[in-house]
Please model this.
Amino acid sequence: MTTMRQPTMAHRGLGGELRLLRESRKLSCKKVADQLGWQASKISRMETGKQGISTADLASMLVVYGVVGKERDRLLKMAERTDDLGYWETQPALSNESKMLLRIEREATSIANFEPLLVPGLAQTGDYVRAVMTSGGVATGDIDSRVSARMARQVVLNRDEPPAYRMLIDEYVLRRVIGTPKIMARQLRHLLEMIEKPTTTLQVLPMALRGHPGLDGPFHILDFEQHQPVVHLEQKISGLFLEEPDQVALFRDVADKLSAVALSQAKSADLVATIAQAHDRE
Model:
């Protein structure tokens, strides 16, 4: 059986994977469409993300491509999740990189996130997100959709089999008031609730450190069952995905070094609780 090469970020997502499957079988869009009784343009639109892919259409395509077993099940689940994300794909307030992050987080088996300035996106409360957007100068008309999109990302942590989620944050994140002290207190209590799950961990880098390897910015490391790992670097109006093994290895090393100088998970939780109480008193 012909093997399919590892998808790059350009081919991530269901449409990109279907294109690679078709090309690995040396089939043209027309040949596949003829077998299914479709127009060739339908295949092209699916592969480029211009048309949604129903589970019924996908099942028919997988018969043509000879995909069975676990791989078939994985792709059908992707179609179901793509349906869930369809609304966000059309939102102009979100960058293409944000939409890509929404997609690939759904497929991740583990996510490591270092944040020196803000609570990690997957752990933010709605009030905290709104306060961040408002203070950051996001257009008023875009705030609701962006807050909703941030909340939609968090569904990944509530699956029956959620990814392992590792948070590394600077103590400064906990102490700086975003919005109001009450918003911050609720946000920190939410962090404490999250780490009650065995799949989620939190370590805090104390302010007593005079420096650490993460001072040059936040990052995500995402691992997958079927794909190569990816590093995501988020910027104000865009983002960057890194896939080269040496690039990913560099950020893994940084994450490990940060973990080594951070407080233990138990001491981190104690610090979060203490600072939450302080915000409540403000």
Observations:
- Residues 96-281 form a domain with the Endonuclease; Chain A fold (CATH 3.30.870).
- The chain has two domains: 9-83, 96-281.
